[in-house]
Amino acid sequence: MKIAWAEVRQVELPLVFPFETSFGRQDTHSCLLIRLGTDGLEGWGEVPVETAPLYNEETTGTAWHILERFILPLLLGREIAHPQDFPPLVRHLRRHHMAKAGVEAALWDLYSQQREIPLAKALGGTRQAIEAGVSLGIEPSVDALLARVTDFLRRGYLRIKIKIKPGWDVQVVREVRRAFGAIRLQVDANSAFTLEQADVFRAMDEYDLLLIEQPLGEDDIVDHAALQAQLRTPICLDESIVSPDDARKAIQLGSCRVINIKAARLSGLSAAVATHDLCQQRGIPVWCGGLLETGVGRAANLALASLPNFRLPGDVSASDRYYHEDLIDPPVTLNRDGTITVPASPGLGFRVALDRVEKHTVRKATFKS
Ligand SMILES: [Mg+2]
Fold first, then answer.
1. Quick check: is 348 in a domain?
2. Residue 19 alpha carbon to ligand 1 centre in Å
3. Cα separation of 99 and 47, whole Å?
4. How many CB atoms lie within 10 A of CB 281?
5. Which domain CATH number covers 19?
């Protein structure tokens, strides 16, 4: 497939309710959407950045710059036989994983449309539906959090994840356990603690959490190994794993027993599949994380999460978890049994609603070869 043109958009969507993590609080989500055109087909991908470099170092501004100046000039007018030919093309450009991942996602969409197969199948997916979990932000009070948990369990979500930070940690877990009993529960610290605070996590061991996600530094796998050795609860790494090789090293060191896979963090779906495969070979379960994606990114996550070693419920939720109106039709919805059906139609399996994309676009540019 020859890429004739590329469109980059920054979109801004209001969130259904504000989302707070150990990084801070947000009530809108900004990201970039990539649209690639070739041979009468269009492919879509999402760059799930934010306007500030909080989750990782990238932002809407840096991703735009890298796409315009470095990535798209390499791609436009070029014949790409397979999406896996894209990572070698941009390997010499250091980092900027999310910018690369958005383009690669659009190539995977094009590729699977061209072959008239679902994206899930192109990636090696085997599940027809995935188990849906929900990620809940830090709330103003424990009562407010309990109300949120009640709401999402009632909607049918199969697993609850709560964001934690120092001072909003073990006592919150205790309250949620007390109120809801043996639900599937896990926590995510987004690197807000240090090894000196290991007692917080040792105290969590009695609450049967599925896992503790990224308790320590975003660039660390050494202190995590020391912490994991003190805990019965599995540590799951998110921010620390930005390549399949990072996963190999973390597993070898004993830094974690579970890995959260986000294609954007890993530089694309190809690296996400490679990380999945490596973890499967080493007996490490994975699950699919989220970065507040709009439907475009959510659809790709859904396809990815259909691979066989995604053995724990992920953060791929229904569209209405985050947005009043999503950018795809139909929106992603939750089945009665708490699963989400993996689309069986070619490509992403959802129609991108251009009118709504247009309505939420704050910046747009088209690039040609
Ligand atoms: Mg996380």
1. no
2. 13
3. 6
4. 11
5. 3.30.390.10
Structure tokens belonging to residue 312:
């724990």
> Domain range holding 93?
5-116+354-368
Same domain, 91 and 157: no
Give me ligand 1 centre to Cα 191, in Å.
9
Please count the structural domains in the chain: 2
> Ligand 1: distance of its center to the CA of 213 in Å?
6
Looking at the annotation, which residues are catalytic? 163, 262
What's the sign of the alpha-carbon dihedral 97, 79, 67, 5?
Answer: negative
CA–centroid distance, residue 121 to ligand 1 (Å): 26
Q: What are phi and psi of 328, to 5 degrees?
A: -125, 160
The helix (H) or strand (E) run that includes residue 129 is strand 129-131
140 inside domain? yes
| Residue whose pair of structure tokens reads 């449309």 in the numeric block | 113
The tens place of each residue's pLDDT in the chain, 369 residues long, gives 999 999 999 999 999 988 888 778 889 999 999 999 998 999 999 999 999 999 999 999 999 999 999 999 999 999 999 999 999 999 999 999 999 999 999 999 999 999 999 999 999 999 999 999 999 999 999 999 999 999 999 999 999 999 999 999 999 999 999 999 999 999 999 999 999 999 999 999 999 999 999 999 999 999 999 999 999 999 999 999 999 999 999 999 999 999 999 999 999 999 999 999 999 999 999 999 999 999 999 999 999 999 999 999 999 999 999 999 999 999 999 999 999 999 999 999 999 999 999 999 999 999 998
